[in-house]
């Protein structure tokens, strides 16, 4: 009797696995995720594809009434023209120097600040940590006017002209990048078990040694995430350079392309697309190299896990 | 010489008193275990000895020097944490040598000490592995190795076995005891597991609600608990607490448990208990092993009674029986062959020579 019941149950379970609810659910979930992922991939990859196609066309072909999604007579003339122009190379150089220095400045400040805020319990540290995040919430469009005033004051008081210099951007960008990078690093440091710095403390490490020998290596994925973020922000920043730099020798890439390749109402589309595409390359390359680190968790094995 | 002395040590978190003034003398080479339920202040006490928590009041001395304001690194202590706290990016060798390197110990000296510690702990072949490649037990050994190489005055263990599975825990317990017998360093060990405390300690410190309840050898605590808390905390299954009162009947002192059940108090205790006759809030404390099945031969102070058994739990070498007297649930340990059956009455025997009389008002054992 009981055997028969069990046999019946087993049979029914087996027949159910054919269209078993769990695997069927999973299959549908996968179909939906593929559908939406492909949709989003198309949505986000079409513009760069269009840029690539356009950059390979001559001005005549761009303005001709042909299929915009096809290149009939591919040419590298846009690339050659752009890369032989001193102007474009200057923008590129300015962007590169500014971005690299902004990354260095931002990371040196935010790693140390985050360590202090996350680990060295001191009066007001929690409030300060929230304060750091709040500064990030103030949009740059609101910030550049007071910054303008500050620069004017510096000019009047110390006779130092900060306007219209590419290196000024190295002071400006950290106002945007430091709060966010600090915030990321606070979160990352907070996820490191407290016992790890206590062990280091007992082992005889000073705060600075704990930071350099334990925290930075362990939080490397977080540091790389913050670095990528900072670089991207610095590289793509448009408003500040537009507001604070004007001479063509002082411009960075995003502003340079827009101000020099659009003359009045004449849009040099081929070169604009080429410039934008080349300009997008460095962040892409950095992402590609650091992505593995970005994802990998180095804390595995520190504690119970 | 590394004795550790605590004098009226207090720890306050804002307005909450975590440790409420404790005095403790730990002698050189001693293995002390702080035990108690969670939140009793045992970990806080350990962390204050380590210097990871500031003390709010009182004094802590290590090796005769007051260390209240000495940072952890200058206290010459080593600590093993519950979650091991190994540096994940360093291999075992680097983990163990980190402290020595910071102290600028010569390389060959570091090498000698690490290899020696690795040998003691049997982890020599793991030296170039990263923590994540190790099992829980191996990580725990490495954490101990990191403590041993420093050759500190005091070892501090903060629930080091809590993350291990039951079998490994027993194994590592023996391991820790062996290591202590080899290196003979003063050790303070925190655990909430009373079995761990009993098996490891030279002396056990039972803590409750920020105070020390009792300090003593494992046997002292087991056989002569000072308070109801200690009596109930040490021993598994726990001591039976049966509400009772003392009465003087026909010139003999008796402990009455219910209308129908009363036992004569052993002669050597009558003097101690006489003044409490008629008092309310008295509790008879009797360990389960002192309630057994009835036997042909009767010893002094043993008394037979009969009760209906509610639950029977066979353990193999013994059987636990549960029954109630006047509303109090009681556990006894009987012979597996004594024929205990749930729902049936059983002839039992109480051995009062190891009884405890507790004043429930003060919590003190009389």
Rg of chain A, Cα atoms, Å: 27 Å
* Count of helical regions of chain B: 9
How many E strands of chain A?
2
Q: Give the N-to-C terminal Cα separation of chain B.
A: 38 Å
How far from one another are the termini of chain A?
48 Å
Overall number of structural domains of chain A: 2
Specify which chain pair forms the largest interface.
A-B, 24 and 32 residues
Q: Based on DSSP secondary structure assignment, what is the total number of beta strands of chain B?
A: 22
Spans of at least 5 consecutive residues with low confidence of chain B:
none
Indicate the proportion of strand residues of chain B.
Answer: 25-35%
Task: Give structural attributes.
heterodimer; A: 305 residues; mainly alpha; MetI-like fold; 2 domains; 15 helices; 1% strand; B: 366 residues; alpha+beta; Rossmann fold; OB fold (Dihydrolipoamide Acetyltransferase, E2P); six-stranded mixed beta sheet; six-stranded antiparallel beta sheet; 22 strands; elongated
List the helices and strands and how they pair.
The complex is a heterodimer of chains A (305) and B (366).
Chain A lengths: L1 H17 L2 H35 L3 H5 L13 H8 L1 H34 L5 H13 L2 H19 L9 H5 L1 H17 L3 H10 L3 H12 L1 H17 L2 H6 L8 H9 E2 L2 E2 L1 H27 L10
Antiparallel strand pairs in A: 1-2
Helix pairs in contact in A: 2-15, 4-15, 5-6, 5-9, 5-12, 5-14, 6-9, 9-12, 10-11, 12-15, 14-15
Chain B lengths: L3 E10 L2 E11 L4 E5 L6 H9 L6 E6 L2 E2 L10 E4 L11 H11 L4 H15 L14 H14 L4 E5 L7 H18 L2 E6 L2 H7 L2 E6 L2 E6 L1 H6 L4 H6 L6 E10 L2 E5 L5 E3 L5 H4 L8 E5 L4 E3 L8 E7 L2 E4 L4 E7 L2 E7 L10 E7 L4 E4 L4 E2 L1
Parallel strand pairs in B: 3-8, 3-9, 6-7, 7-8
Antiparallel strand pairs in B: 1-2, 1-4, 4-5, 9-10, 11-12, 11-14, 12-13, 14-21, 15-20, 16-20, 17-18, 18-19, 21-22
Helix pairs in contact in B: 2-3, 2-4, 3-4, 4-5
Write a concise synopsis of the structure shown.
Chain A has helices at residues 2-18, 21-55, 59-63, 77-84, 86-119, 125-137, 140-158, 168-172, 174-190, 194-203, 207-218, 220-236, 239-244, 253-261, 269-295; strands at residues 262-263, 266-267. By secondary structure, chain A is mostly helical. Chain A folds into two domains: 2-49; 77-295, MetI-like (MetI-like fold, Orthogonal Bundle).
